[in-house]
Amino acid sequence: MRLWSREIWRIVWLAILGISLGWLLGYPWLGLAGGLLFCLVYHLRQLRALYQWLTLHPHDEPPAAKGMWGELFDRLYRYQKSQRITQNRLRATLARIQESSEAMRDSVVMLDRHGDLEWWNSAATDMLGLQTAHDRGQHITNLLRDPRFISYFNAREYGEPLTLTSPIDERRILQYQITLYGDDERLVMARDITRLHRLEQMRRDFVANVSHELRTPLTVLSGYLETYGDLKELLPPRLGKGIGQMEEQTKRMQNLVNDLLLLSRLEIDRGGEDHQPLAVGPMLESIRRDALALSHQQHSVQIILDCEARLVGSEQELRSAISNLAFNAVRYTPAGSQITLRWAAMPNGSACIEVDDDGEGIDPVHIPRLTERFYRVDKGRSTATGGTGLGLAIVKHVLLRHDALLQVESLPGEGALFRCVFPPARVVNDA
Ligand code: ADP
């Protein structure tokens, strides 16, 4: 402010000086005009110096000046200098980030808010085939054209990663993960999981092969044991008892092998070939009969049909999943319990099959882990009732293959409700 008032005073003095000189010469107004013109010329010269400095030599020292202009030049110079330091620091940080991304073995691709390619590391060139000069500014879906990637990209729900083969090498398996950041920009990461995938494949094949190989010896064993069982009366009592137990355990092993084989098939096959619209009522009716047979008519099993739509899916797989739920309801509830199988429409066009019982229920701490293989709330009880520990894992896999999800509601002492929710696309209304 001090400089500013000094500048005003300077103009006032020059005006007074101009008037005084003009008055002495007999032309006061001309003198005033002369004084002001002098001011104007001075300021115009400084302005030109500023303009030339900023446009022609912005990195040089500022032009020499006094008073307000000198201060203005100094401040601008200092501001420019600090801006340059910040810029350099940012550039160095960016270079370091790019360098570290470059060193990563995973692909990193930065997209702008429209989904156009901005930057990527050399792993992305190697895995996804992105070409530096040619592809910059292109939309990502022009380069990664797999429809599954496009719908994953557009869905904007990036909670789960997406696994696909590499667009340039069919033998490589990549796992994509997208992250939203900044102003709706996206970061696409792709990881090569070929080795992991192969190991997983080997594990599945191994379990499937072992289960398959165990089938024949077990059939032979149980065949002979059945024959010996028929002759139990002819054997000493201790041997007879042993044969009874062997029969029981062989049956358990057979159940286990069958469940393992079914799980392997559900994991290995892509499925979908035998999907067709099914009438749910008759399927629930036949499951009800099987459940009653298992319970020796000691439970009461009822069916409620609150939906007339048909369900698109594989009859064999769905029957196996719902049977597992119904048989669990029989096995984990005391005689006399009430079991309900229900097919119901839901508000948003989806529909669900529920299996509800009024048994002892499950403590909520166990619920998140129920679908894990071999997870049992009470191991002794599960084994005693002939459980393999794989029932709910099978249910989960079948539902996954039908785009459905499993909801479990239960409290100790208040029964258990298992709800399979099918999306609208799986529900066909004939009317
Ligand atoms: P399992 O072969 O042991 O029955 P599952 O995967 O079918 O294996 O079930 C996992 C566990 O969930 C069971 O061990 C049992 O403790 C519990 N469970 C399943 N259904 C019910 C039910 N209707 N009521 C109470 N507990 C249940």
For the sheet with most strands, the description reads:
5 strands, antiparallel
Give the CATH architecture of the largest domain. Answer: 2-Layer Sandwich
Task: Give the CATH H-level superfamily of the largest domain.
Answer: Histidine kinase-like ATPase, C-terminal domain
Query: Which strand order do you get reading across the main beta sheet?
Result: 2-1-5-4-3
The amount of helix comes to: 40-55%
Oligomeric state: single chain
Question: What structural class is derived from the secondary structure elements?
Answer: alpha+beta
CATH class of the largest domain: Alpha Beta
Number of domains: 4
Mean of residue pLDDT values: 91
Low-pLDDT parts are none
Structural description of this entry:
With 431 residues, the chain is α+β, with helices and mostly antiparallel strands. It folds into four domains: 2-94, no CATH class; 104-192, Beta-Lactamase, CATH 3.30.450; 202-268, Helix Hairpins (Orthogonal Bundle); 276-428, Histidine kinase-like ATPase, C-terminal domain (Heat Shock Protein 90), CATH 3.30.565. It is built from 13 helices and 13 strands. The strands form three sheets. It has a five-stranded antiparallel sheet, with helices on both faces. Strands 7-9-10-12-11 form a five-stranded mixed sheet, with helices on one face. Helix 11 (315-331) runs antiparallel to helix 13. The radius of gyration is 40 Å and the shape is elongated. It starts with a helix and ends with a strand. The structure holds adenosine-5'-diphosphate (ADP).
